[in-house]
Write a structure and sequence with these properties.
Radius of gyration: 17 Å
Strand content: 25-35%
Order of helices and strands: EHEEEHEHHEHEEEEHE
Number of helices: 6
Length: 233
């Protein structure tokens, strides 16, 4: 099997290194014949499904299996599938530093990379890690949880035009490992609050105070479990 790894936090972000660790160090059962990293050269968080068509996309090879792309996450998937990899079995995106729950999936570059793969008939998994405030993420734990999730999702059928969206919770170091819960996306909007300064509006919405629709991915993740949602194009 060939896995393409990408993200929206950039190729040097700790999350994509943890994703690589999940595949290589924590024993994903479906051993990958090849793991290829094709990720943005720079940070593109929140860019959604933006693609580059008006200027050239630079490719910066770092090795035979690692490429920094001068473009967005969706660009990375396009470049991987059309130019760098003759055959791809799965596209994995993440691990994003911050949740991508409910309405976030329309904004997220992490999710867009996997959505682009689904458009081309390639299955994928977007993985994000919710953060409580500005507390740091323990990436080794995230890698271990991700390996468990990926192992399970690789065994499940995935309809054409579908992909998985996974959100890891932010727990205390001594908390037990979270359960994996399959759940729907929240349909509630993000908080829309602004502070007025002269003729400017400054966003001050509180992510942690967003609506927790019972049983939705927001509710599951905020309750300390791993939220897994199947999204259909």
């Amino acid at each position: 099997m060939t896995f393409v790894l990408t993200n929206d936090d950039g190729i040097d972000a700790p999350g994509i290194k943890a994703l690589y660790q999940a595949l290589q160090d924590y024993g994903v059962d479906h051993e990958a014949n090849e793991v290829i990293v094709v990720a943005p050269q720079e940070h593109h968080s929140g860019c959604g499904h933006q693609v580059t068509t008006s200027h050239p996309i630079q490719i910066h090879p770092r090795s035979q299996q690692e490429f920094a792309i001068g473009g967005t996450p969706a660009d990375c998937t396009r470049v991987a599938l059309s130019h760098l990899c003759s055959e791809v079995d799965w596209v994995l995106s993440g691990i994003n530093a911050g949740g991508n729950l409910g309405a976030d999936t329309y904004i997220s570059g992490t999710v867009a990379a996997v959505r682009e793969a689904a458009l081309h008939g390639i299955p994928g998994i977007a993985i994000s890690h919710y953060r409580k405030g500005k507390r740091p993420i323990h990436w080794e734990t995230a890698a271990r949880w991700t390996a468990t999730v990926v192992n399970q999702l690789l065994r499940l059928p995935l309809d054409p035009g579908s992909f998985w969206n996974v959100n890891l919770p932010h727990l205390e170091p001594d908390d037990p490992d979270p359960e994996l819960v399959f759940c729907p996306l929240s349909t509630q909007p993000l908080p829309v609050n602004y502070r007025v300064e002269g003729d400017q509006l400054i966003y001050v919405g509180d992510y942690a105070q967003r609506s927790r629709e019972p049983g939705s991915d927001v509710d599951v993740c905020f309750s300390g479990q791993i939220a897994v949602t199947k999204i259909q194009l």
